[in-house]
Amino acid sequence: MRATSPAPTIGQSVLCRVLFWSLVALSLSACAAGPSQPPPQHSAPTLTHNCRPQETVGFSCELHDHRLLSLCASPGFEKFAGQPKDNPGYAYLVVGSLHGQVQHSYPDKPSEYKKYLSSGSTMSAWPYVKAISQKGTFFYANGDAETPVSLTPENLPPGWHVEPAPTRGDSYCTNRVHRENFDAVLLQLPPATN
Question: How many domains does the chain have?
Fold first, then answer.
């Protein structure tokens, strides 16, 4: 003899249908949503300088090691109407990542920039800026598009590291050079003594 299973009750039958259709609806909604993807990762924006947003960017370029070298000045620095020696603002050099992580800044006290940064003109009439550490001139930038920046690694301030240019005599900067306020900022720096 064959054992027979009891017939489902009306309540069990309704419950089975509700569960079945709930699973179908859940499956369909999951299919309609498409494959699950992780939330988009927002990377930090690529910058053109490492000055603070309100500051004047006198100069900035991307180094061969893909960091930024920027000459930054206080807001309105380039618009000061008096003599450069009387400018109450500040200026400094900064090296950092393309995403705004500052690694080096010089001088330590930007308000003392007059001791370390100076400007002048080359014999070819290119305006230039140079920075001097305790060891001597370590940074030089001019208006020449071919070789706008040179660095003297042995004169870098303590703790600074900059990869050398690919070929001796090449600019330390790649083609990405920003100098919208270069001349105006240079006019506010003290004149070079040599």
Answer: 1
